[in-house]
Specification:
Layout: H1 2-18, H2 20-46, H3 53-72, H4 75-82, H5 85-91, H6 96-124, H7 133-159, H8 165-181, H9 194-201, H10 204-217, H11 224-248
Amino acid sequence: MIGDIYAIYLREMIRLKRSKVRLITTIVMPLLWLGIIGNAFNSAFQSSMKIDFISFLTPGIMVMTMAFTGTISGITTVFDREFGFLKEMLVAPVKRESVLIGKMLGGVTQSIFQGVVILILGLLMGMKLVNSPITAISGMLLTMFLVSMAFVSLGLAVASKMSSMEGFQMVMNFLIQPMVFLSGAFYPVKSLPSWLKWGVKVNPLTYGVDAMRYFSLGMNEFSIWLDLSVLVAFSFILIAIGSYAFRKS
C-alpha cells in the first residue's frame, strides 16, 4: 500500500514540476500581493496600528493562498476523470484509499510549498517575527499543515462530484472567496460591522489566519487553543467527507 501511495504522490509532484505556469504563478502571485498591495497600504496602515502592513498581511496571504492551492489541487482528479486515467487507476490492483491518500499528500505538499515561498518572500520584504524563529516557524508549519489538509480534502470532495474543470473552478471560487474575505486576511476583524462578525466566527479560515498571526506576530483575536481545535476538527470533518465522496465516486 505504501508503494501505491508513493507512486500516486510522485505522479502529482511530477505533474507540478512539468507545469511551468503553475510553478511560476506559485511565486509571482504572492509577490504581487505582498509587493504591490502590501507596500501600497503600508503607510496608511501604520497610522492605525503599531505593526507594519507587510507583517500583518503576510500570514493572511499565506493562509489564503494555501486554501486556494489546496482546493484547486482537486482539479487533477477532474482532469484524470475527463481523460480516463482515474478509471484506469480504480480498476488497477490499487486500493481506493491509496489513490485518495496519494492525491491528498500531493495537494498538501504543493500547498505547504507555496506557504513556505510566501513566508520567505515576506521575510525578505521586511516581515518581522515577534516570537523566536523556532517557535514561530514550528507553529506556522503546524497551521499550514492543518489548513492544507482541510482544503485539499474539500477540493477532492467537490472534485469527486464534478465532471468538468470549468464547473469545478466556479464552485471552488464560490466557496472559497467569501471565506477569504471574512477571515481577516486583509484587515483586522474587529474593524468589521457587528452584523458581519457572526460570519467571521463561523468561518474556519478565520482561525487559520488567527493562528498564523499568533505564531508569527503574537497577535490573536481568539485563544490559540480555540484556533487549533477548530482547525483540527475542521480537518477531520473534511477528510471524512472527502474520503466518503471519493470512495462513492
